[in-house]
Amino acid sequence: MDTLEKLEVLAGSARYDASCASGGSAGNSGVCHSWSDDGRCVSLLKVLLSNECSYDCAYCLNRSSNSVRRATFTVEELVGLVMRFYRRNYIEGLFLSSAVLRSPDETMARMVSVAERLRTRERFGGYIHMKVIPGSSPALVQRAGEVADRVSVNIELPSSGSLSRLAPQKDRNAILGPMSQLGRTIGERVADRRRSRRAPRFAPAGQSTQMIIGASPESDRQILLLSEALYGRMNLRRVYYSAYVPVVSDNRLPVPASGPPLQREHRLYQADWLLRNYGFSAAELLDDTAPFLDEELDPKAAWALRHPEYFPVDINRADYGVLLRVPGIGVTSARRILSARRFAMLDVDGLKKIGVVLKRARYFIVCGGGVVQRDVMVDERPSVVRRRLLEACNALPAPAASRQLVLPGLR
Fold this sequence. Notes:
Elements (H helix, E strand, L loop, with lengths): L2 H12 L16 E5 L5 E8 L26 H13 L5 E5 L6 H17 L6 E5 L6 H10 L2 E3 L7 H7 L5 H24 L11 E7 L6 H14 L2 E8 L18 H16 L4 H4 L13 H8 L6 E2 L5 H4 L7 H10 L7 H7 L3 H4 L3 E3 L2 E2 L10 H11 L19
Parallel strand pairs: 2-3, 3-4, 4-5, 5-6, 6-7, 8-9
Antiparallel strand pairs: 1-2, 9-10
Protein name: DNA modification/repair radical SAM protein
Keywords: Iron, Iron-sulfur, Metal-binding, S-adenosyl-L-methionine
Cofactor: [4Fe-4S] cluster
């Protein structure tokens, strides 16, 4: 194959990796749009170094026993391709992953060489997100963090039992080892740079990971408990949840009754946002009696309905953490409430101006001396409030012939 034929194969193989917030690629070029933490849209070349894998993971399109077109870039080919795209302003960065060639170290060494040549010889100043191959040596993991902006080690499946059943050549410790090393070094370098701006950078955009959802039997509670532990112990920036798509046939895998579990993936992202930004814990959102997220309501609204004893919340007295737990109030509107009420008592009109979503919040709050929704409150009739919330977000079947599911936000 020539370089462009390899690009067609290896860009197509990369599209199943969800560990960067990217949309679909444009044609067979591998150029996709990714979103940074501050909301900027960045064009990336999303590509594999190789899809010639020595592993035989049940869920993977590139598994060694699957019959697909195989290709491998040389280091020089990929460096040249990236620079051609970059100089023509097609891309602002590179997302680089790979199947495991003969060994993790051989694969990782080639990937690191690509990034190092881009940085040193080509003076490439764009963004680099590099996947770290589980089982790679600490020295290669260190070099990856020194040249990449973001690094990620895919944890793949939510439990060691599922990993050994579906990906028997992968080892849980081989995944957690590099992840722990990266998290520790990222934390050390952040501390160093606080003391001196001249301290060298190490993966300044942090590390992320990916979990496949629906290929194994773990509950949402197990998944969120694992994510919570990774955030706490591995200095992790993001966990990406990837709904299982049946791209290969294997008797160890489930047969989805109605396509990929995209609604479940969506709810997990919402719950993950609550863990990272709203002060919730995984144990609060789900327990052993209800181990799966509600598919009809977003996780915060579902939590509020299960805990009517927390409500109603007095908007003019509640602290920031309590305000964040009210459906219809997000981070921005909670901060605006704290700022505005220093000067005057807030009423319904004031909440509307601030940006509170009253069609959701009204059942959970009091303000300006009285309740907002006088006929029903969540602490009195939670089942009625649930139905009204579902009606407000169009999640119940519409009476007309047209039926459309509108996914509610977190607020």
